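Still learning. Any example?
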Amino acid sequence: MRQIHNNPNYIIKTPLFLDATCSGIQHLAALMKDLELGSQTNLIPSKMEEGPGDIYDSLLEPINKAINQFGEENLDYSLLSLVKLTRKEVKRSIMTKVYNVTVYGISQQLQALFEDSISKEHDSKKMEIIKKIQNDLESELKSNKKKTKFKCSGKDGKSISLEKKEIFKIASLINDQIFINYPSLNYIYNYLVDITKLSAKLGIPMTWITPSGLKITQNYLKKKNKVISVSIFGKVKKLVIKTKLNELDKAKQSQAIIPNIIHSLDASIS
């Protein structure tokens, strides 16, 4: 890397594997020439003493503040006032937002992460927790009130047990804070989706050319499902045959445009 810096024509004989800083947001920052986003995703030169930009860390404090404030202001979600998420716990949600992950998708990511945190505890403590959860589930099942508990990071190093509705609210707040703190992301999201909706209304597929010169056409068509029942050896099997119609799938066009653009830009720099 030092030789490349001094001489752009230097021939490399050893493979180099480079990891980008939240490449999805990097692409959008570059498209918009957003200096703030660019600095947080290391697109702008910085001094050694400043250290690298870290968009996950920059969003961590406002996310935790929003979660705590919501818990303080809403009695039904009072446990959220004790939550203190870590960088690791918010990283995936922020990183995949540019791939069009929904609030529900973020909540699923958090649930999987919080479940995993339980499994990594010390064996004796883990067994104690599992038994407690099993006992709780048994009593809840008897009372027809099945609730799953998830453990997330809390203040003073303590763990907080939360239910699905609370995890979903955290996911919603994370989603909001990404756009509140970096409004330009909201602008480009809306722009790309609106352009795609207009294009779909006109019956025109979306087309763009990547920096590497590859032409991409997004042309999702509606499908018609036909169910056919087939009798084999006395048993009836149902087969679903999908036939493409000559009509754009407007919903899928809008949902796919942002992740497809990001993937195409990822491929351009691979």
Q: What stands out?
A: The mean pLDDT is 86. The longest helix spans residues 123-142.
